[in-house]
Amino acid sequence: MKILGIDTSNQVMSVALVEDSTLLVERVVNIKRNHSIQLMPAIEALFKEAGWEPGDIDRVAVSKGPGSYTGVRIGVTVAKTLAFSLDTELVGVSSLHVLAGNGERIPDSYIVPLFDARRNNIYTGLYHYKENICVPAEPDTHVSVEVWADYLKTLQAPIQFIGSDIHKHRDLLVDKLGSQFIELPMSRHYPRASVLAEIARTLEPVNTHLFEPEYLKLAEAEQNWMEAHPDQSQGGGWIEKL
Amino acid sequence: MTNKRILAIETSCDETSAAVIEDGKTILSNIVASQVKSHQRFGGVVPEIASRHHVEQITLIIEEAMHEAGVRYDELDAVAVTEGPGLVGALLIGVNAAKAIAFAHSLPLIAVNHIKGHIFANQLIAEMKFPLLSLVVSGGHTELIYMSSPDSFEIIGETRDDAAGEAYDKIGRVIGVPYPGGKHIDDMAHRGEDTYNFPRAMMHEDNYDFSFSGLKSSFINTVHNARQKGEEINSEDLATSFQAAVTDVLVAKTIRAAKEKQVEQLVLAGGVAANKGLRHALTQAVEEELPDVELLIPPLTLCGDNAAMIGAAAFVQLENNTFSDFSLNGKPGLSV
Description:
heterodimer; A: about 240 residues; alpha/beta; Nucleotidyltransferase, domain 5; 2 domains; 5-stranded mixed β-sheet; B: alpha/beta; 10 strands; about 40% helix
């Protein structure tokens, strides 16, 4: 199975071409650049390098969020449009799951990926290895660092923290968790599309047309509107064909 | 010569649209999904929510456009997309979808200016003839654009503050009509009389620029003063008076520019081209003052944002081999 993996959910852009369980080519860029400008040229260059034609791919795998709203949308738009117009499979993977896939297989430990979400909040999740595969132990969430650290304390197990935003919250996490806190080497903190493709190989394809990012947060205007209109339904019926 | 077909995509604001256009003039399909109901909740377009809706809709709308046109990807000659101006997050959805299709099917990519698209909506109803003058009026633009040829755009006049459509939406809020206010004000204007005599800003100045913020303030002050004094306001007369002030200036300056530039054609373009008062006033003025000039006004379906107009404008670039590479980005402040 030929898989194209795309992750633009945060500052890092990663693109990879993976065939079955073999990585052919991967690009990871952690330079603050506009994903809209760099993503498609990167995909084109990698296909050229691998000698693949667009029609060769069996599956497109994409990080579906959470993360930067615009970044997630660029990856998701390119992935779903490629999958739809090439009539190929599409798989979305949590961008936190992709980071967690960089963790170590340490018995009886957990892996906690995180992205900063400002105002002392983070996007995070709880993962662990089960039968040699990294899987979620809890759904991803948007939560205050403090509340999350208190919860992790109750697990009474070593926790590998992953993500380049950890430095923003390290003091608090170490303070709360003490020796439970494990930090991995530098190279593990950046999402890699090859890891994404490997996770995506084990998942079921989604309905391409209905696929959308998982923001884990409503837009602020929508949140306010829902609070002011608790009796009205949240979704559906907003789009009209003219 | 075989026919040339372009798949066009437009997502610059709150409409997700895809179209297939043949030879820049024949609409094979033109699918438009409007988000207006969603944004009505907030009294105006919320950019983040617009972007979210575009991601939800984009492949569905492209599929419907391809299906309705009965065209396969290998029967296309190019993919075109609005690169700007517009909301950056919204533009990015169309731009990235277009790039994905261009890559997947080895098609040339054409980046189209949204304002040029509005002007080329006219090519879908009749052949455009040059030299031509276009009055572009929308929520974000009020411009007089002179075109000596299909790929030459000279702004000879523009608004110095609010766009005409923007003024409509703002005064609509003041008298409490739902967003977007323009259509409601237009309807009300047909039932009242011009009794308030609002200022016709810059109408007689020796230039082709416009200003609508003074008119807007005058309108708002009139309403506030009346409310403070407890006087009754006739909303329909207010709407009629406002609309008369807007159309008087737009029409007077457009006619003067058309005369001076000795154009073959005068074309109306943009969302406010759907305004009945403006369509009527311009038609009448051209009949009386410019009997030799042909006036084109797009049908209502082609006045609002749509991808068909993007496909029409893109055809000129296809013929000129003006293509973009995969680093194409959204350009929110792009000018013509």
